[in-house]
Amino acid sequence: MNAFLLIVIIFGMTLQQVARKAYNIRVKGGVYSFSAASALVAALLFVAVSGGSFQFSSTALIYAIAFAIAYSVAMVFTLLAITEGPLALTSLIISYSLIIPTFYGLLFLNEPIGIWLLIGIFLLLVSLFLINWEKKGEKKEITLKWGLFALLAFVGNGACSTIQKVQQIDCGGRYKNEFMMIALTISAVVMFLLALPVEKKRLANNLKQGFLWYLLCGLGNGAVNLFVLVLSLKMPASVMFPLISAGGIVTTVFISLFVYKEKLSIQQKFGVALGTLAIVALNL
Predict the structure, then answer these.
(1) pLDDT given at position 26
(2) Which class for 136: exposed (0-12), middle (13-18), buried (19 or more C-beta within 10 A)?
(3) Where does the record place the EamA domain (predicted)?
């Protein structure tokens, strides 16, 4: 059963990235409407799973608002990064975001510093160097704009994981579904409000043309969050998260290279491989 849930989670992570890439190819613009619609679909999935049962607290509400902000940043800038650069490298950089909750645990939760953490950080730095290494006369595949978008997506995604962790600690493991429902709904509303003035006349067309892709992205996002919550009670985090992160990268890179025909240099491919090992090491 655990293996099945892991496969579903990895599939859900890959589905989100592929849906974003497909949307970017078929619909020009519509970043806010896509992010809003995806968040709404994910929120509705949690509403359906909850079966109408709803309990909450003011403390959890504060965390839900904070998560909504981080989630909105992650959604918008992930899509922008995929627009500006390779899907494979964008997915890898965002996967590095797990280092944010890792450092939070070290600094504020008194978690021990192990040898695998140091190895993981070293591999991560080497991976970043190889990804950005450019030979003389070689065409540069990534840009400063892509780097900025990927960095903001990295921060937003890492903040989401950190806020979830703190919320569960502070609330004694309660309000999982309610926390996600409210956070995703707030994010959807904020993104729609931003879409109204920015996308204007294109909003309805963006929603119509992108229906399939934001539906798939939202379902993938909701499924990942849902089954991570379920699996977290059945598997050690030190086993679960390395498998999810590495599996998501491998499948996304495979699709980006063989489906979307993205071109990565030998150094960048080696950097992706080291990045995958870094993610595993950081979770051991």
Answers:
(1) 84
(2) exposed
(3) 148-283
